Structures are given as C-alpha cells and as structure tokens.
C-alpha cells in the first residue's frame, strides 16, 4: 500500500475516536491541530473520497444537509499505524510575517511594526488558549505535550517580537545596502 500524506493520515487519526462527517473533521482539525497544521475544506473532502476509494474509510448514508459520516476500516487503521511509525520529516517554517521582515528594508518601519503588532495580538490569544486548554481536565499526555510545545513556541515568538525594535536598530537608521546576489556567486 502506498504511503499516506499527512492530511489523509490526520483524518484517519481523528476517525480512530469514532465516525464523523467531513464538516465535523474540519472542525476537529481546526481545534486540535489548526495552529500548526493547515487543513482546508477542499482537502478534507478530497482526501475522504480518496481514502474511501482505497478502502481506508467507509462512507455511511447521507444525512441531514447532505453530510456523509465516515468510519475508519481495519485497512485504514493499518495504514495509519504504518504512517505514524514512520519518522516525520523536518519542520518547515512558513510564517508570512517573516517575509515582511526579510524584505523590511523596502517597507516603512511604522508599517512593519504595525504588522508585528497585529501578529502579536494573534500570538497572545493563542498562548492564552493553549494555557487554558492545558489547565482543563481530561487531556491526555500527548495533547499535553503538544500544548506544551505550543506554549513555548508562542512565548518564543512574543519574546522575539519584543526584541525586534532593538534588532532592527534605530528608526532613523537606513537599512544596510545589500550585496547583489549575482556578485556573491563569483566570490565563493
């Protein structure tokens, strides 16, 4: 059997706890992994159809609002077990604010810091949410470990944001001229 992609495996992981519709799976994904793994509506329905075609999930009858509930099959449990036992690849940071920072020399400093402040609000809210969930009853050690990472990540991002004005230097200092990438090729 060919390997699962991470989104398909995520859906199978959620289906271990019981049947769910695509709509419900999307809501679960947003709550449980949404802060660090993006799952879109189109991906959920595309993957559910592919998983059903491969015999890894079984589609039930169409219910209210044309929602179909899915159950994981034994083949799906086996495929998930193979996927979860495979070492994960390295993380990839995809943080749009970092693109603005990387090219910040082309942007008014006040505008750049405004973007940072908008992101700060999001990270502060996420940190409070993680802390509240960590204090709630009934979370297993794996969710506790995931939340602990999230809390440390948010703390680190907020500390970095606090340090940004000093890192960027005085507001009236022009950004240093950057070397032309073409001239770097011949200098190695």
Can you give a write-up of this model?
With 188 residues, the chain is mainly α. It folds into 2 domains: 6-85, Arc Repressor Mutant, subunit A (Orthogonal Bundle); 96-168. The chain is 60% helix and 7% strand. The protein is built from 8 helices and 3 strands; from the N terminus they run αβααββααααα. It has helices at 6-15, 22-32, 41-53, 74-85, 96-102, 109-135, 141-168, 181-185, and strands at residues 20-21, 57-62, 68-72. It has a 3-stranded antiparallel β-sheet. Helix 1 packs across helix 4 (74-85), helix 2 (22-32) crosses helix 3 and helix 6 (109-135) packs antiparallel against helix 7 (141-168). The protein is elongated. The N and C termini lie far apart (46 Å).
Which helices and strands, and how do they pair?
Blueprint lengths: L5 H10 L4 E2 H11 L8 H13 L3 E6 L5 E5 L1 H12 L10 H7 L6 H27 L5 H28 L12 H5 L3
Antiparallel strand pairs: 1-3, 2-3
Helix pairs in contact: 1-4, 2-3, 6-7
**Poorly predicted sequence stretches spanning 5 or more consecutive residues:** none
Please tell me what the overall shape is.
elongated
List the domain count as a whole number: 2
Radius of gyration: 22 Å
Strand content: 5-15%
The termini sit apart by 46 Å
Strand order of the biggest β-sheet:
1-3-2
SSE-based structural type: mainly alpha
Query: What is the second-level CATH architecture of the largest domain?
Result: Orthogonal Bundle
Number of helices, where a helix is a run of at least 4 consecutive DSSP H or I residues:
8
Query: What is the makeup of the main sheet?
Result: 3 strands, antiparallel
Q: Tell me, what is the CATH class of the largest domain?
A: Mainly Alpha
How many β-strand stretches? 3
* The CATH homology group name of the largest domain: Winged helix-like DNA-binding domain superfamily/Winged helix DNA-binding domain
Q: What order do the SSEs take from the amino end to the carboxyl end, as H and E?
A: HEHHEEHHHHH
Helical content (DSSP H or I, runs of 4+)? 55-70%
Give the assembly state of these chains. Answer: single chain
CATH fold-type name of the largest domain? Arc Repressor Mutant, subunit A
């Amino acid at each position: 059997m060919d390997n699962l992609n991470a989104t398909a495996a995520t859906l199978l992981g959620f289906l271990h706890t019981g049947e769910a519709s695509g709509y419900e799976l999307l809501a679960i994904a947003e709550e449980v992994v949404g802060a660090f793994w993006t799952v879109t509506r189109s991906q959920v329905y595309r993957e559910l159809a592919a998983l059903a075609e491969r015999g890894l999930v079984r589609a039930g009858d169409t219910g209210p609002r044309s929602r179909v509930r899915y159950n994981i099959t034994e083949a799906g449990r086996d495929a998930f077990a193979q996927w979860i036992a495979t070492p994960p690849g390295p993380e990839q940071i995809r943080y749009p604010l970092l693109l603005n920072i990387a090219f910040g020399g082309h942007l008014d400093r006040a505008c750049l810091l405004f973007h940072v402040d908008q992101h700060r609000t999001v990270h502060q809210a996420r940190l409070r949410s993680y802390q509240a969930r960590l204090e709630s009853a009934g979370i297993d050690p794996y969710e506790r470990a995931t939340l602990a990472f999230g809390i440390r990540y948010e703390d680190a991002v907020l500390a970095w944001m606090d340090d940004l004005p000093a890192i960027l230097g005085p507001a009236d200092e022009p950004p240093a001229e950057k070397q032309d990438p073409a001239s770097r090729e011949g200098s190695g």
